[in-house]
Amino acid sequence: MAAAGGESSTTNVSEELFQNFYTEVKQIEKRDSVLTNKQQIDRLLRPGSSYFNLNPFEVLQIDPEATDDELKKRFRALSILVHPDKNQDDPDRSQKAFEAVDKAYKLLLEPDQRKRALDVIHAGQEYVEHFVKEKKKQLKKDGKSLDLEEDNPEVFKQAVYKQTMKLFAELEIKRKEREAKDMHERKRAREEEIEAADKVKRDREWQKNFEETRDGRVDSWRTFQAKGKKSKEKKPRSFLKPPKVKMEQRE
C-alpha cells in the first residue's frame, strides 16, 4: 500500500510540475512579448542560435499547444518587429532574425513538421518526468529524503528545456549525417555515370576511326603485296659458282 501511495504521490508531483512548466512558459511569453526589436534580434542571433532555433516554438516564443490563429498572430507581430524595413540601422542581422522567424512559422504550418516538433518537446518532458520518478524511487529505497531540486518548478523547467534542446540537436546532427551520406552517394553515382558515358564515347570514337581508316589500311596492304610480287619477278636467277681451284706451284 505504501508503495502504491508513493507512486501516486510521484505521479501527482509530475503532473503538478508539468502544469507549472506551462505556466512558466506562458509567463515568459508574456514577458518577452514586450521585448524591443533590438532585443528580439539579439535573442534570435545569440551564440548557439543555430541549435536554439531548431525549436520553432522557442523561436516564436509560443505555447506548443497554441491554436493556428494564435500562431499567425504571433508570427505577424514578431516578423514585423524584426523585419529589415523596421531595422534599417542593422539590416544584415535583422534579415537573419526575420529568416529565422519565417522558417519557424512555415515549419509549423506543415502538419507533419509540427507534429514532429511536438513529439520532440513531449519526449523531452517525459524524459525529465521519468528521471525524477526513478530518482525518487531510488531515494525511497535507500531510505533518504525524497526532496529533489527538480521539485522547484524553475529547475524542472530548465531541465525540460535543456533535454528538449538536446533532442532537437541530436535530430539535426542525424539529419546532416544522412544528408552528407546521400550527397556522397549521389556524387559517386554521378561520377560512375560520367565515366560510363565517357567509355561509350571513347568506344564510339575508336570504332569510327577504325571504320574510316579501314580502306586506307586495305590499300596499303594491297600495295605492299603488289610491290613484293613485282620485286620477286625482277629478281635474276642465281647459279652456284664452282669454287676456285688453287694451282699448285712447282719448284
UniProtKB/TrEMBL annotation:
Transmembrane segments: none annotated. Residues 55-122 form the J domain. The keyword Aminoacyl-tRNA synthetase does not apply. Residues 178-251 are annotated as: Disordered. Residues 178-220 have a biased composition (Basic and acidic residues). It is found in: Nucleus. Pfam families: DnaJ. Gene3D superfamilies: DnaJ domain (1.10.287.110). Keywords: Acetylation, Chaperone, Nucleus, Phosphoprotein. One of its GO terms (cellular component) is nucleus. The keyword Phosphoprotein applies. InterPro entries: DnaJ_domain (IPR001623), DNAJC8 (IPR042858), J_dom_sf (IPR036869). Residues 227-238 have a biased composition (Basic residues). Suppresses polyglutamine (polyQ) aggregation of ATXN3 in neuronal cells. Interacts with SRPK1. Interacts with HSP70 (HSPA1A or HSPA1B). This is DnaJ homolog subfamily C member 8. It comes from Eleginops maclovinus (Patagonian blennie).
